[in-house]
Amino acid sequence: MSEAPTSTQPDKKDDLGLTPEEIEENKKAQQELEAHNEAVTKQMEDLKNAVRKDMPFVSKYLTLDEYKLKWEGNKFYDSFDSIMTKFSKVRELRRDGNCFYRAILWQIFEYFLVNKSEHALVEYDKILKKIEGAKQDLMDNGYDEVVVDMFHDQFLEEFKGLSEPKIDVTDDEAVEKYLEERLCDESLASYLITYIRFIISAYLKANREMYQPFIELDMDTYCQIRVDAVEQEAEEICIIGLMNYLDLAVEIIQVQPDGLAYTSKIPEDAVDDESRFIGRLLFTPGHYDSLHI
């Protein structure tokens, strides 16, 4: 009996010229790669969360010499020499996507808590009126009244409390504790920061013709995913929006790889003559810390 002939026909290949065995191997390799990437992502997220837990929302004062040491060996290290000609202290902010919002709120609250000069009181009253009217501005730009009420009432209460604080505002430790209780308390701070985000969104939407050319997304989408969303870092347009809405100013010092420091002001014509509030922030790649003279 003769044996059946052995087939020499090659395995059928797909459109890319791969055999079933090769397709299966590629599929397995892809699954292993995805599993590896998920593991690495989880590891990095766990590390980030661990760092966050160890880092306070707002640090105690550091001298700029102490802060500079953290950058030793980095290309931005020499930038701090020029920064130290004007500033002496810095507060570090937790890297949680809210660094700008927490830093600027800390400085605003501290300024109006401590400073009771005539010009400061006039400026405080102007901002208070803005905040009182912010609820309607938010509703006019698509925010639900029920949602707005929760955040508006809390923010307004805290801002009003700055005018008649129940602490000795000449006591630096008491002032620091007062601010920590509001801006380092995760629950309360979330309300305050979220409301500031809402205010920025409402302002940008109300002035979309002015700001739309500077963003790639449509304004509503941009505000939803880049401004309102928790832990989204503040982009320059957000900072401009907040300063314009509240009629405040901020000076941002940015480290440079050439050893210099670049200074910008929002608005650009803000005059630092001690007759108004000016926030002072240090920008290092992807992060804001709080500068102090």
UniProtKB/TrEMBL annotation:
Coiled coil: none annotated. PANTHER family: UBIQUITIN THIOESTERASE OTUBAIN-LIKE (PTHR12931:SF15), UBIQUITIN THIOLESTERASE PROTEIN OTUB (PTHR12931). It comes from Euplotes crassus. The keyword Protease applies. GO terms for cellular component: nucleus. It catalyses: Thiol-dependent hydrolysis of ester, thioester, amide, peptide and isopeptide bonds formed by the C-terminal Gly of ubiquitin (a 76-residue protein attached to proteins as an intracellular targeting signal). Residues 25-34 have a biased composition (Basic and acidic residues). This is ubiquitinyl hydrolase 1. The keyword Hydrolase applies. Residues 88-293 form the OTU domain. GO terms for molecular function: cysteine-type deubiquitinase activity; ubiquitin binding. InterPro entries: OTU_dom, Papain-like_cys_pep_sf, Peptidase_C65_otubain, Peptidase_C65_otubain_sub1, Peptidase_C65_otubain_sub2. Keywords: Hydrolase, Protease, Thiol protease, Ubl conjugation pathway. Its EC number is 3.4.19.12.
